Amino acid sequence: MQKICLLGATGSIGQSTLDIIAQHPNKFSLECASAHSSVEKMADICRRFTPRRVVMGSEKTRDQLAVLCSDLAISFEWGEAALESIAADSNVDQVMAAIMGFAGLKPTLAGIRAQKRILLANKESLVTAGKLFMDEVAKYNVTLLPIDSEHNAIFQSLPQNLDGAHTQDVRKLLLTASGGPFRTWSVGDMQNVTPEQACKHPNWSMGQKISIDSATLMNKGLELIEACWLFNMSPADVSVVVHPESIIHSMVAYCDGSVISQMGNPDMKIPIAYGLTWPERISTQVADLNLFEIAQLNFEQPDLQRFPNLRLASDAWYMGGTAMAVLNAANEVAVAAFLNKQIGFLDIAQVNEKVLTSAEVVAVDSLETVFDADLYSRNLARDVISHGHFL
Ligand code: NDP
Ligand code: MG
Question: Do residues 359 and 376 lie in contact, with contact meaning Cβ atoms separated by under 8 Å?
Fold first, then answer.
């Protein structure tokens, strides 16, 4: 029986993880869970899974949840310290890091330092803390399993997985991208798109923030950086391949010309189940892949003119240090502003570029430097937005 701490239980990844846990009650149990403000959703989770500890974002939401679930023997807690504490709980075997955004960094690090097996969906934590994150993984000898479908696919297509062996045989990583809902749209057409349009991903059903990131290609930019940290590569070793059907989840090209890929229907339950049981596999209720129905797989070059975020991510990697935390923070602020209809869709990349090119970038020598860069960049992004000084 594997005891799971599910950070971000009320989200899209949270829901898919709960589906796998519910499907295999003799293999997994939900030991701890967290949400930010979704009280009703968390009350349902508490009724179905009775975790031992549950953490909410504020005292108020914790109290509301405790009232709704007063008949259940659960410890209801709140705040950052409690979040770190459940990730490090001595009963927990595996931590699913599925909080949205930079807020996931500290609890994920707490899980690493407590030597839990880490299932990483929260790409922003690795993108922002980078080397520091990977150094902690090595120092605490932690098994880090990528849940992001592309990185999970690369992991499955590598011979010796994450320990670095045989990587000299790897020529390139081919990171696939659906292209998002505006793949074929002109810049003019994208000018006035609404949050509702941008959230409608053609293939995947996901949380709001990552859906917008998929539409701007910032998600692929974050994933490019994520792949570089996870697999010890640089952007020159990673080709982004637009593949609108989202059936090939990514590929590894080897020095002998072989290309190995992982395929499947676009359903996050596949990488989640693989992470939970690796090196074994377990059944999911995902439908069989029907290649006759799919009939065609297409591939295109990404268009960096229409989707500059992908270029910005690569720039941030080569700038190094806090540049990736700066870019991520600007993007989190810009996406929230777009969702609140304060800025237009195309302004997101403009805010990101403005902040990345104006912020001071320093070496990451501690977690404080990452948090300072994040705070500085958020303030700068808010300032840029409120003054309309995008470029
Ligand atoms: P959702 O928005 O659906 O869910 C986010 C979860 O995080 C919710 O439980 C939410 O709680 C919680 N949360 C939000 N803000 C905070 C905060 N400040 N502090 C603590 N908890 C918070 O996101 P997704 O499930 O789509 O994505 C989660 C992560 O997984 C992201 O990093 C994303 O990039 C990554 N990912 C997601 C994929 C997907 O298919 N969805 C695919 C690959 C990666 P509440 O409900 O109370 O707000
Ligand atoms: Mg992905």
Answer: yes
φ/ψ of 79, rounded to 5, equals 95, 170
pTM above 0.90, yes or no: yes
Element (H, E) at 362: none
pLDDT for 302 beyond 70:
yes
Q: What phi, psi does 71 have (nearest 5°)?
A: -85, -5
Radius of gyration of the chain (CA): 20
Beta bridge partners of 32: 5, 53
CA of 11 to the centre of ligand 1 (A): 5
Supply the pLDDT for residue 183.
97
Q: Does the ipTM exceed 0.95?
A: yes
**Can you give the length of the chain in residues?**
391
- Cα(210) to centroid(ligand 2), Å: 9
User: Which domains are assigned to the chain?
Assistant: 2-142 (3.40.50.720), 154-294 (no CATH), 320-387 (1.10.1740.10)
- What are the phi and psi torsion angles at 276 (to 5°)? -65, -30
**Closest residue by Cα to residue 345 from 127, 185, 125, 222:** 185
300 secondary structure, DSSP code: B
DSSP strand E in 244-384: where? 248-254, 259-263
Q: Please state whether the peptide bond connecting residue 279 to the residue before it is cis, i.e. omega within 30 degrees of 0.
A: yes
Confidence of residue 164 (pLDDT cuts 50, 70, 90): low
| Residues whose beta carbon lies within 6 Å of some atom of ligand 1 | 8-14, 35-38, 57, 98-100, 103, 121-124, 148, 204, 206-210, 268
Question: Residues annotated in the binding site for 1-deoxy-D-xylulose 5-phosphate, as ranges?
Answer: 123, 149-150, 178, 201, 214, 219-220, 223
Q: How confident is the model at residue 132 (pLDDT cuts 50, 70, 90)?
A: very high
